[in-house]
Design brief:
The chain is α/β, with parallel strands linked by helices and 507 residues long. The protein has 20 helices and twelve strands. The strands form three sheets. It has an eight-stranded mixed beta sheet with strand order 1-11-12-8-7-2-3-6, sandwiched between helices. A two-stranded antiparallel sheet has the order 4-5. Strands 9-10 form a two-stranded antiparallel ribbon.
């Protein structure tokens, strides 16, 4: 199926249409539940946005995830599974007609895919990101022209020819990461870290080697990233102790998990260094293009409001999804390796856009912040838009009802959903303010489902965007639709969650 050209599409206001009987029946069947809550406002929103929904084979799940970056130079130096691909960014920039001399924004920069693509194309770019590991990734990747390849080859040769020693310095564990490595692996890892610091290398190379060490942590550990948490191989002391406690309580042990091969530190290092050197050599063959890219460290909720207005020609981003994924747990090994202690990790968890059941409301803090920068009126505009959004308020009421009925496995979902959309509303409001007229915003996101309640994230975002002055253009619907969790499917049926790329125009 061919897609429409975004540039040629005429943006229209969101107006509810009279759906065909077949379409109405399909939507009502999708939202049908046990009658404990109303779905009428969400169904009306589906009808209002029906003209925007565009099934397409131009984009797929590989492009909107890390998968396509696995073979992409520079981008594959860090396995940042929550990111999207460089190919997606390039495709969207081409579709939007953005090139050198223009400026783009990535408010949830992650491992800096958007900024790196902008660098390769000579486009100015600004990103915002809070996780320290992502800033290290940007620092190391963005300096590919500054590396001394001969020096890197010397490091690789040294690693290949040297038998690793054993450091007496322990890995700087936090509670989440304890026993992630065998004692021998941990001692060798820390030995390499010490040796790299002592080799008298240039600062760019030392920074790059720090990223290389971080990039192999999962490969040499008993852990695997699994969205909401780290999954533990049955060989780990932590997993064995957990199962022993369950048996002592007359419970069945957890199902055994074997992640497969656990790489030796030296082997993993050699593989990673070879990849890095090949990529740098290849990238140096490309001509250098003008352009300035910057990654700002901090929370997007306080960084965007301070930015100058009407300066960006496009936004390409993917915020954390409303899916309970905890980045501070998923990337706990990397954060700990960089020196983040328990308190800092807890702080980072709260600073992230609310997407876990542990997040607390930021509304009072946002009110104080907007007042402190002389924008109390804007705070009230955003809160008013959230409070007056019928579909969003229906979602909040439905989730509270499900919590009261015991239909949620964690009542923290209530606070998370309310916080997520409230905070996202502030982000969307600020995106409209900082974009120039004619700018397009593309956001990748997943719809979710809790307690049987479908939450149309893409359309809720789009309606808020329209309230703030954007003209919604398209909601690209990906062909591979993501199913629900096994618990959701078993109880409520196999209704797939829509995965989309929403596109809005600042008229």
């Amino acid at each position: 199926m061919k897609t429409r050209s975004v540039a040629s599409q005429i943006a229209l206001p969101l107006v509810e249409v009279n759906p065909s009987p077949t379409y109405e029946a399909r939507i009502r069947e999708a939202y049908a539940n046990d009658g404990a809550t109303s779905c009428e406002a969400r169904i009306a929103l589906e009808f209002k946005c029906a003209r925007l929904l565009l099934p397409t084979d131009e984009f797929n799940r590989k492009l909107v995830s890390y998968q396509a970056n696995k073979e992409a130079r520079l981008h594959n130096w860090l396995k940042y599974k929550e990111g999207f691909s460089a190919q997606l960014v390039g495709n969207l920039l081409g579709k939007f007609g953005v090139g050198p001399g223009q400026k783009i924004l990535e408010p949830f920069a992650g491992s800096a895919t958007t900024l790196l693509v902008a660098k390769e194309l000579g486009i100015d770019a600004v990103g915002v990101e809070i996780l320290p590991v992502c800033h290290l990734a940007w620092e190391a990747k963005s300096k590919y022209r500054e590396y001394d390849v001969a020096e890197l080859c010397g490091v690789l040769k040294w690693v290949e020819e040297t038998t690793p020693g054993q450091s007496s310095t322990p890995f700087p564990h936090i509670a989440i990461t304890e026993s992630a490595f065998s004692p021998e692996q941990e001692a060798r890892l820390m030995w390499y870290r010490e040796q790299f610091d002592a080799l008298g290398l240039s600062n760019p190379t030392r920074s790059l080697l720090q990223l290389v060490l971080i990039s192999i942590l999962e490969d040499i550990s008993y852990t695997r990233k699994d969205g909401q948490y780290l999954r533990w191989d049955s060989r780990a002391t932590k997993a064995q102790g957990r199962d022993a406690r369950r048996v002592a309580q007359s419970k069945q042990p957890f199902k055994a998990f074997d992640k497969g091969k656990i790489f030796e530190v030296k082997e993993a290092l050699i593989t990673a260094l070879n990849q890095v050197i090949r990529d740098i050599e290849a990238m140096l063959l490309n001509g250098k293009l003008p352009g300035h890219q910057e990654l700002i460290e901090g929370t997007v909720l306080e960084t965007l409001p301070k930015m100058e207005g009407e300066q960006f020609d496009a936004v390409i981003t993917s915020p954390p999804y409303c899916n309970r994924y905890d980045y501070t747990r998923t990337y706990a090994l990397e954060l700990a390796f960089l020196g983040a202690g328990e308190e800092e990790v807890r702080h980072l968890r709260q600073e992230l856009l609310s997407c876990t059941v542990e997040n607390r409301s930021k509304l009072a803090r946002l009110e104080a912040y907007y007042s402190s920068i002389g924008r109390a009126t804007d705070f009230q505009k955003v809160v008013g838009a959230v409070n007056n959004n019928h579909a969003l308020q229906e979602v909040f009421i439905a989730i509270r009802t499900r919590g009261a009925r015991g239909d949620l496995n964690n009542k923290g979902v209530i606070r998370m959903v309310e916080g997520y959309f409230t905070e996202l509303a502030f982000v969307i409001f600020e995106l409209h303010r900082v974009c120039r007229a004619g700018a397009r915003v593309a956001i990748v996101n997943d719809n979710v489902r809790y307690g049987g309640e479908i939450i149309p994230v893409d359309l809720l975002m789009t309606e808020l965007a329209a309230d703030f002055g954007f003209s919604p253009e398209t909601v690209y619907v990906l062909p591979q639709r993501k199913g629900n969790s096994s618990q959701q499917m078993g109880k409520y049926g196999r209704e797939a969650n829509r995965k989309s790329i929403t596109v809005w125009l600042k008229s």
